[in-house]
C-alpha cells in the first residue's frame, strides 16, 4: 500500500518531469527560432541594401535620405514585431497548472487526514468480509 507521503512525492516527481519536458520543448523551439532569425536577418540586411540603392537610383533623393527612409521603415516594423512577440510570450506558462493543482489538492487532503488521525487516535480497521451473492 502506498502511504500518503509517497503519493505526494510521486506527484512532485511527476510535476518535475513535466516541467523539464516543457523546458526542453521551449529550448528546442528557441534554438530553431534563433537560427532562423539569424538567416532572416542576413537576408533582410541584403534586401534592405538593395532597396536603398534602388531608391537612390530611381529617385532624385540623395543616398543618405534613402538610407534614412529605409532605417525608419525597419524601426517601425521592428517595433510592431516586438510588440506582437511580447504579448505572445506573456501568455505562455512554463509550469503546467494541472499537476500543480493536483499536488495542492493532495497536500490539502494529506493535511486533512493528519488532522483526522490526530482527532481519532485509534482509527477503525476495515474488516475484509466476503460478500456472498
How does this model look, in words?
With 133 residues, this protein is mainly α. It has a domain at 4-87. The chain has three helices and no strands. It has helices at residues 4-58, 63-91, 97-119. The two termini are 28 Å apart. The mean pLDDT is 80.
Q: Short summary of the structure?
A:
The chain has helices at 4-58, 63-91, 97-119. It has a domain at 4-87.
Strand residue percentage: under 5%
Judged by helices, strands and strand pairing, the structural class is mainly alpha
What summary fits the major beta sheet? none
Categorize the overall geometry: rod-shaped
Mean pLDDT, as a whole number?
Answer: 80
- Uncertain segments are none
Distance between the termini: 28 Å
Can you write the helix and strand succession as a string? HHH
Say how many strands there are. 0
Contiguous helical run count: 3
Radius of gyration: 31 Å
Helix content: over 70%
Entry keywords:
133 residues, mainly alpha, 3 helices, 80% helix
Indicate the topology.
Layout: H1 4-58, H2 63-91, H3 97-119
Helix pairs in contact: 1-2, 1-3
